[in-house]
TrEMBL record:
This is Cytochrome P450. The lineage of its organism: Bacteria, Bacillati, Actinomycetota, Actinomycetes, Streptosporangiales. Coiled coil: none annotated. Belongs to the cytochrome P450 family. InterPro entries: Cyt_P450, Cyt_P450_B, Cyt_P450_CS, Cyt_P450_sf. Keywords: Heme, Iron, Metal-binding, Monooxygenase, Oxidoreductase. The keyword Iron applies. It holds the Pfam family p450. It comes from Actinocorallia libanotica.
C-alpha cells in the first residue's frame, strides 16, 4: 500500500493528514532560509537534510513547493523523467505559469526546456564546451589572467578583486568565444547584473536591460549572416541557415544563456573562493602546493553555496515518491544543491572545507539533462584564476577584517560587492 502524502514543516517534520492541508499551507516555512553570512548555509537546511525527506516550503512569490536537500534525493530529482522544467507538461496552463514561478532570467533556454527541444539545443552548444576543446582555451585564458594581474600590480595595492579580476576574466573569455567586441563587454556586465538581480531593480529596469541585450544579440547574429565568423555566434547562425534546425529566437536565447552562465558562475566564485581561502588560511597551502589547485577547486565548488534561492523550479510530471514522500503531478520541486553537497552520508565531514578532499562527486553544476553545459569551462577558468593568484601574488591578504567585507544581497547568486586585497 502506498504511503500517504505528507506535508512536512521545519520543527520536527510531523506527518499531517490530507484534511489539514489548508492549515499546513498557511504555516509553511518561508524559503529561501536566512543564514548568518552570505557564504554560510542556514542551519534549517541541515535540519531538513537530517530528516532524509523532502520538506514543504513557501516560496517568495506565493506558492508552496517541495524542497529536496539530501544528496541521493537531489540526484534522483535532477535525473528522473518524472520531473521537468516545462509547467505545461505538468498540467499547469500557460496563463498560470507567471503565478507559480518567479521571473526566470534564462527563460526559454537550455535551462527551461525539456526533451526533445532540450536535446536538440544542447547538442549544438555542447560541441563547443567538451573538456578537450575547453582545454585548448586554457592558454588564452592564462594570458588574460596574467594581463589582469599585471594591471593590478602596476596600479598597486589595495585592489578590488571583484572589479579588477573576478568580473573581467570570465567576461573576456566568454565574449571571445561568442565574438563580442572588447568595446562592448562592459555593457554586458551591466545587463547581466540586471538579469540576476532579485530585488535591487524594478521589473521595468530589468525588462529594459533584457530588451537592450536581446536587441544587441539579435544584431550580432544578423551580422554573422553576411559576415560569417568562426566564433560560437557564427556557428549557431550557420546551424540556423544551413540546417534550419534553430530559429532566430533560439539563437538569441542561447547566446543570452551562454553569456549569463559563462560569466556569472566564475565571476562570483573567484572572489568567493579567495575570500574563504584567505579566511581559512588555505591560500597559503595552495601557494606552497600548486598541484593542489584542481582538487581545491572541486572542494570549493562543493562547499561554497552559489545560488541564493535553490535550483530552478522543476514540476512533477507524474506521481512519484522521493524519500518516501508522495509528490503529485503539477507540484513544484526545488533542489537545494548546496545542502546536498554537504550531505555527510556522501561527504564525510561534509560541513568542513577540506581542499585536499579526493573523493568528491559534488553536484555543484547540477546533474542529469540540465547539468551545466559550461562546467568544463568554469572549472578551467577557476583553476587558472587560483593558480595565477597564488603564483603571482603569494602574499595576498584581505585589507579589512572578514566581517567587514560588503556582500551583495540583491542577486540571484552570492557575491561580494568588493573584496579589497593587498600583497
Amino acid at each position: 500500500m502506498r504511503t500517504p502524502r505528507r506535508f512536512i514543516g521545519m520543527e520536527d517534520f510531523p506527518a499531517v493528514s490530507e484534511t489539514t492541508i489548508g492549515a499546513a499551507m498557511s504555516t509553511l516555512p518561508a524559503f529561501p532560509f536566512t543564514a548568518d553570512h552570505p557564504l554560510h548555509l542556514s542551519p534549517l537546511l541541515g535540519e531538513a537534510r537530517a530528516g532524509r525527506v523532502p520538506i514543504r516550503v513557501q516560496l517568495g512569490h506565493g506558492d508552496p513547493a517541495w524542497l529536496v536537500t539530501s544528496y541521493d534525493d537531489a540526484r534522483f530529482v535532477l535525473s528522473s523523467p518524472a520531473f521537468g522544467r516545462d509547467p505545461e507538461r505538468a498540467g499547469i496552463p500557460a496563463g498560470r505559469v507567471a503565478g507559480v514561478t518567479p521571473m526566470d532570467p534564462a527563460s526559454q533556454t537550455l535551462l527551461t526546456v525539456d526533451p526533445p527541444d532540450h536535446t536538440r539545443l544542447r547538442r549544438f552548444v555542447y560541441r563547443t564546451f567538451t573538456p578537450r576543446r575547453v582545454e585548448q582555451l586554457r592558454a588564452g585564458t592564462q594570458r588574460i589572467a596574467d594581463r589582469l594581474i599585471d594591471a593590478m600590480i602596476e596600479a598597486g595595492p589595495p585592489a578590488d578583486l571583484v572589479q579588477g579580476f573576478g568580473l573581467d576574466l570570465p567576461i573576456e573569455v566568454i565574449c571571445d568565444l561568442l565574438g563580442v567586441p572588447a568595446t562592448d563587454r562592459a555593457r554586458f556586465v551591466a545587463w547581466l547584473d540586471a538579469l540576476l538581480s532579485t530585488s535591487g531593480l524594478t521589473m521595468e529596469e530589468m525588462q529594459t536591460s533584457i530588451t537592450e541585450m536581446n536587441a544587441y544579440l539579435a544584431d550580432l547574429a544578423a551580422r554573422r549572416v553576411h559576415e560569417p565568423t568562426g566564433d560560437l555566434t557564427g556557428a549557431l547562425v550557420r546551424e540556423r541557415i544551413e540546417g534550419d534546425r534553430l530559429t532566430d529566437d533560439e539563437v538569441n536565447n542561447l547566446l543570452r544563456a551562454l553569456l549569463s552562465a559563462g560569466h556569472e558562475t566564475t565571476a562570483s566564485q573567484i572572489p568567493n573562493f579567495v575570500f574563504l581561502l584567505l579566511r581559512s588560511g588555505d591560500y597559503a597551502r595552495l601557494v606552497a602546493d600548486p598541484g593542489l589547485v584542481p582538487t581545491a577547486v572541486e572542494e570549493l565548488l562543493r562547499y561554497v553555496p552559489l545560488i541564493t534561492q535553490g535550483s530552478m523550479t522543476r514540476f512533477v510530471l507524474e506521481e512519484v515518491e522521493v524519500g518516501g514522500v508522495l509528490l503529485r503531478r503539477g507540484e513544484q520541486v526545488l533542489v537545494e544543491l548546496a545542502a546536498a553537497n554537504r550531505d555527510t552520508e556522501t561527504f564525510p565531514d561534509g560541513e568542513t572545507l577540506d581542499i585536499g578532499r579526493r573523493n568528491n562527486p559534488h553536484i555543484a553544476f547540477g546533474h542529469g539533462l540540465h547539468r551545466c553545459v559550461g562546467a568544463a569551462l568554469a572549472r578551467m577558468e577557476l583553476q587558472v584564476a587560483l593558480s595565477t593568484l597564488t603564483t603571482r601574488l603569494p602574499g595576498l591578504r584581505l585589507t579589512d577584517p572578514p566581517d567587514q567585507v560588503p556582500w551583495d544581497t540583491e542577486r540571484f547568486v552570492r557575491r561580494a560587492k568588493k573584496l579589497l586585497v593587498t600583497w
